[in-house]
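Re-run requested by the PI after the first attempt was lost when the workstation crashed. Everything re-entered from the original request form. Ligand of interest: magnesium ion.
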Amino acid sequence: MGALLYVVVPCYNEEACIDHCAGRLLEKLDELAGKGLCSPKSRLLFVNDGSSDATRERLAALRQQDGRVCFLSLSTNCGHQNALLAGMLYAKDYADCVITIDADLQQDVNAMDEFLRCYAEGVDIVFGVRRARDTDGFLKRVTAQAFYGLMHAMGANVIRNHADYRLLSKRVLLALDQYTEVNLFLRGLIRSFGFVSREVPFDVSERYAGQSKYSPAKMMRLAMDGITSFSVKPLRIISITGFICVFFCLCFIIYDLVVFLQGETITGWTSMMISMWLIGGMLMISLGCVGEYVGKIYMEAKRRPRYLIAEVQHEGPQKTKDA
Ligand code: UDP
Ligand code: MG
């Protein structure tokens, strides 16, 4: 018999997608169980991330129809990363492995066969890597490229074109449970674990229905979290820029003295203004950057829970303990 699989699906206001998503994933579970790649007792675990539409009602109705559909409701909108974490950490007590996928099924579910084959061969982490980006709009494509470029430049360790479509074994889930940081960037964090991992390519399609739930502001936050939770490079860049500024200032002082000694007076308004704005701007950016890290320390120091579960609709197999 194959592994007991939990497919974790975060959903935020996905009433338009949820029926299609559950139908397609249940079909897939049957197919995978038929091939012996997963156990027939495998489950779908939806995480309702504080949706304000009928997502919860849709999930409850789906659960009535098929007991393999389970769901957690978070008390409020905690964000995609935390919703994923809530689902994975809940599933770790029951599942042999977990696959995370988005509710809009943009990721090709057929890649799961290969994910589970890798798992059967002893791979602990399987990263789904998207083949092409032609289904994305221009803006999404450009911002995604900029995102990965920036992440690499800033020293955050991420796989290009891997979103949160991946398989994790129980061992990895137990490891994940030991990381208590509030600033969560799963793509980078899981990569840093260092278990046996493999990349599996998949095709991306259009969102099934509804709008993207990642607003530009949420994307910016994710990028900032990615960089600041993995690297102190931005702080180093600030120091280096500071040194360069001081060096130029010294050159200027020498130049000024020479001009002064030659008896030429300079009006100097333009250079004054430029340097004032430039240095002012750089100081603001630097302060902001340091502030980002201080803010993170503040959040981590409070050790607040990353999400609160308001409701659990699941009766699973016996809790398992072994890795
Ligand atoms: N999502 C979530 N909480 C949020 C934002 C998004 O749980 O605050 C879920 C959303 O329902 C979807 C997944 O995260 O299942 C990915 O979001 P989306 O498809 O909107 O992002 P995109 O594919 O546009 O990057
Ligand atoms: Mg999507």
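Saved to the shared folder this time. The pocket of magnesium ion (ligand 2) is lined by residues 102, 104, 106, 207, 212 (CB under 6 Å).
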